[in-house]
Design a protein that fits this description.
Layout lengths: L1 E4 L25 H15 L3 H8 L6 H8 L7 E2 H4 L3 H6 L6 H10 E5 L3 E3 L4 E2 L9 E2 L3 E2 H17 L4 E3 L3 H4 L12 E10 L2 E3 L2 H18 L6 H10 L3 E4 L7 E7 L3
Parallel strand pairs: 1-3, 1-8, 8-9, 9-12
Antiparallel strand pairs: 2-5, 3-4, 6-7, 9-10, 11-12
Length: 259
Amino acid sequence: MLIVLPPSEGKSVPSRGKPLDLPGLSFPTLGPARESVLDALVGLCSGDPDGAARVLGLGGTQADLVALDARLRTAPTARADRVYAGVLYDALDVATLSAAAKRRAGSRLAVTSSLFGLVRPADRIPAYRLSGDTTLPGLGPVAGVWRDALGPAVTDALGDGLLVDLRSSTYAAFWRPPAELASRVATVRVLHEVDGRRQVVSHFNKATKGRIVRAVLEDGAAPRTPGRLADLLSDLGWKVELGEQTRKGTQLDVVVDQV
């Protein structure tokens, strides 16, 4: 099983730690693409700060994030599961998983990154600011860079298991599973139900996905089809509705009435 998560826009900035070792990250086939994006981002942020802020979509009070990106090659690093912050990662809370669940997280989780493509929880990375919809001067849209590079890395990591794709739409554009994998692809949508009406609410979506991943890691089961995953989530206490398989995979709707 491979569970692919979105990154968080907000990140915890390491105060100490070794600098970035790009060749030491997981998914080494992504090395050339990582170098290209890193060079473009550091180059942008080492020049005109105001111009860099405009490219990165930052406001006037966020100049510190431009400086952060300018120092990426020498900045302190920490485990990716400590750098990524926010609602999903707070709910997942890797640090408090059982020892067995932490081992499963190390082999089953991957985080989509606009800077690194994919990282494992234990990969040491610096905090950075680069949204998935950014176009970098001299390089182009970062989504296009990863669209050409991620496929082999994901399929190698997936093997013959189930891909649980929890990425947001921005990061789903980095790579879309081919039709031949459809029978082994599950996406999850969280619907908030109030008085019989359902809607997608960002906070509920992120928090529930984090709790789902945490529960699956603690349980230890490794379902191999979307249907088996739906059964597992039902057994773990969620209300799950299984959609029809399409050429993109199978969507599971998880219906919640509270966060």
